[in-house]
Amino acid sequence: MIGWEDVYKVVVAMVPLYVALMLGYGSVKWWRIFTLEQCDAINRLVCYFTLPLFTVEFTAHVDPFKWNYRCIAADALSKLIIAIVLALWAKCSSKGSYCWSITSFSLCTLTSSLVVGVPLAKAMYGQMAVDLVVQFSVIQAIVWLPVLLLVLEIRRAGTTDAGAVHVDKDLEGTINAEASSRPDFWHLMKLVWLKVAMNPNAYACIFGIAWAFVSNRWHFEMPSIMEGSILIMSRAGTGTAMFSMGIFMASQEKLIACGTSLTIFGMVLKFIAGPAAMAIGAIAMGLHGDVLRVAIIQAALPQSITSFIFAKEYGLHADVLSTAVIFGMIVSLPLMIAYFAILEFAH
Q1: Which residues contact 142 (CB under 8 A, 6 or more apart)?
Q2: d(CA 305, CA 280)
Q3: Comparing C-alpha atoms, which of 173, 192, 309 is closest to residue 240?
Q4: Please, what is the Cα angle at 60 between 50 and 65, to 5 degrees?
Q5: Per-residue pLDDT tens for 192-233?
């Protein structure tokens, strides 16, 4: 059962993030330290250096031979359900949007597991839950964030290749632009894969998990010179991401950058739709007991900070993602306790 000491541990984990956020906010809003061009450079530093090395660091130290692969399958099934629903919405609804489908997928599925999830999971269900939360976090880093990166590159390449492109209704190439032609599919994909191959976020996760398999199979540790080279930047990953978010907030006219209705929309996707899809996937894969409860609760964790960094870099609804991260972390503790109580009562 969660006690005040457990609540304090979660608060201790979260407060430093808001310190970094406020420093970023103040550096632009109050102290005028950075120009707009410098703010963009800071976000690119986070996107291409600190976050990839952070990914390498925590994926390289897991043991994939001890993973619960039924949980991984449940996670994949839940995300497939969400992707199908969003694809049908984008194709069949008059209000459907490819761009909003990308953002909605991020809101439903991508979580900040390591910051909030680990201390909460340990308080609720012990070390077993911690192991599962870390496992879900690694799978997110090596599978789902690269998938997000890929679709963002497809969107960017389509826009760049065709000039003024309206991509809200399809990857098939319906283009509404003056004096522009339909881009060749294979040329488009060539551009996309080239961009992805040049992005360190794509192969950081591959390197990290490859090292995890090799080191756990043959039982040797990473050379200290190599680990030190990774740690020197990776330790700044989460802090610089929150700092960049504070900078972004300061550049907006309103504190709630996306407005009240979109904030509520994001919270519903994050804390209701995501856990509901996970519950369906977990039950379908035969999960039960505390493992089922942990799977559902971790799906309701606050929004991934990395998803905001990608949204800012690719110019896609960064206001919505930043609001989801900030307010998600504020309301996450009481919501997680509510989920815990409901699931225990259902048991």
Answers
A1: 59, 205, 206, 208, 209
A2: 26
A3: 309
A4: 150
A5: 888 888 889 888 888 999 999 999 999 988 999 999 999 999
Mean of pLDDT values over 137-156 = 90
Q: What residues contact 227, with CB distance under 8 A and at least 6 apart?
A: none
Computed over every residue of the chain, the mean pLDDT equals: 86
Residue 295 structure tokens = 């799977």
Which tokens hold the place of 326?
């900030």
> Which of helix, strand or coil describes residue 235?
coil
- Residues 281 and 284: their CA atoms lie apart, in Å, by 5
CB 89 within 8 A of CB 82: no
Q: Residue 183: what pLDDT?
A: 57
Cα–Cα distance measured from residue 300 to residue 103, given in angstroms and rounded to the nearest whole number: 17
C-alpha to C-alpha distance for 316 and 103, rounded to whole angstroms: 8
Tokens coding 24? 């970023």
Q: What is the rounded distance in angstroms from the CA atom of residue 28 to the CA atom of residue 19?
A: 15
Distance of CA 307 to the CA centre of its chain: 4
Under DSSP, the state recorded for 13 is H
Alpha carbon distance 256, 236 (integer Å) = 26
List the domain range (segments joined by +) for residue 46. Answer: 4-346
pLDDT, tens digit, 9 for 90 and up, residues 231-246: 999 999 888 988 998 8
Q: What's the pLDDT score for residue 8?
A: 80
Q: Are 60 and 212 in contact (CB under 8 A)?
A: yes
Which pLDDT value is given to residue 166?
46
Tokens of 39: 């703010």
CB 174 within 8 A of CB 26: no
How many domains does the chain divide into? Answer: 1
Return the number of other C-beta atoms located less than 10 Å from residue 254's C-beta. Answer: 11
SS3 category, 254: coil
d(Cα 167, Cα 182) in Å, to the nearest integer?
Answer: 12
CATH for 85: 1.20.1530.20
Q: What is the 3-state secondary structure (H, E, C) of 113-154?
A: HHHHHHHHHHHHHCHHHHHHHHHHHHHHHHHHHHHHHHHHHH
